[in-house]
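Progress report, Aim 2. The chain analyzed during this reporting quarter is listed below.
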Amino acid sequence: MSRGLAALIALNALIFAGAALAKLPPIAALALYNANGTWWQFATSAFVHANVAHLSRNMFLLWIWGSALRREVTGPGVWFTYVLCALGANMAAVYGLGVKAKAGTALLGVAASGGVAGVALAALLLTARPSLRWIMGAALAVQFTLPALLAVPVPYMPAAAGGAGAAGAAVLTKLLPGWVLAGAGEQLAGAGGGAGALGLGAAGGGNGVGGFLAALKAPAMSWLWGAAAGALLVVVLARLPVPPE
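Predicted structure tokens for the chain:
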């Protein structure tokens, strides 16, 4: 692991310890709880997590995908991608959730999950190769990354933002075949049931790609669109020709 990536992971862990364990007010002020927060909290909330499970899951995925992305954009590029996609996730969630984004802790943890999702997507796109080996490896990686990122992206939140988890489970159940879902365990199946309870299953319009795209239209999934927009911007910047010296 590079020093830059290790520093990013360590910073997330230290901020969580300072806010959740030490209860330090200056560090706790970094969090963006809802759309009524200050402008700078839209960026600083990238390093704030809802609980230990949220932190450990995100940092594990950041280590895996950040290592792959670093080989394409260097360490500072990973930092830039993480913060940019976190900012995009916050802004998209505020727009997509509307008035619901102003309630309670509707945005707590959205930025952190958005940052990790953006790093994963950018790494996947920048390392893409026209080979069976890459396709098989990418499919396997996504199979284990999607449940962690989408099934419960922001745990223990009010229904307004907690719908993101249910929508993510709906996406997964519509996109992947049954034998893959069976391997994901009972927890994912339970989350899928929650999605149905919220009416997301009916909105999906069936299995396969159509259902996947329909589930992505849910307002609760807007944070993912913001993260994806940031990742695509990183890909474009990384592919720009380097001027000769």
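The chain has a mean pLDDT of 76. The radius of gyration is 17 Å. These observations will guide the mutagenesis work planned for the next reporting period.
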